[in-house]
Amino acid sequence: MERQCQSCGMPLQTKKAGDCRGTEADGSKSDKWCSLCYRDGAFITPNCTLEEMKEIVDKALKDQGSGRLMRWLAQKQLPRLERWRMAKAK
């Protein structure tokens, strides 16, 4: 299992939230995607762009009280995640 969502970078397992994995079409837990990005075997926002995801992640981290450095690092890692590498390859 990946340690973080390959769409938004959120940890798939945390002490506070527990199991944050999304679900496959058969109801099993995904090993790549979180519950905020993926449900029932499909992306919740299939037309989301990398730039839109950067804004979503930045807002979520800002709302959680993360500083600029953490938010910058999160945005820098997004293009390296599987969803965005796949989109770029198309």
Task: Provide structural commentary.
The protein is of the alpha+beta class and 90 residues long. The chain has one domain (13-89). The protein is 36% helix and 19% strand. The protein is built from 3 helices and 6 strands. The chain has helices at residues 50-63, 68-77, 82-89, and strands at residues 13-14, 18-19, 21-23, 29-34, 38-39, 42-43. It has a two-stranded antiparallel ribbon with strand order 1-2. A two-stranded antiparallel ribbon has the order 3-4. α1 (50-63) runs antiparallel to α2 (68-77). The chain is globular. 19% of the residues are buried. The model has no long low-confidence stretch (mean pLDDT 94).
Give me the secondary-structure topology.
Blueprint: E1 13-14, E2 18-19, E3 21-23, E4 29-34, E5 38-39, E6 42-43, H1 50-63, H2 68-77, H3 82-89
Antiparallel strand pairs: 1-2, 3-4, 5-6
Roughly what fraction of the amino acids lie in strands? 15-25%
Overall form: globular
How many domain modules?
Answer: 1
Q: Count of DSSP helices? A: 3
**Main sheet: strand order:** 1-2
> What is the first-to-last residue Cα distance?
25 Å
Radius of gyration: 13 Å
Biggest sheet descriptor: 2 strands, antiparallel
What structural class should be given to the helix and strand makeup? alpha+beta
Give the helix level as a range of percent: 25-40%
How many strand units? 6
Report mean pLDDT, rounded to a whole number. Answer: 94
Please write the string of helix (H) and strand (E) elements: EEEEEEHHH
Low-confidence stretches: none
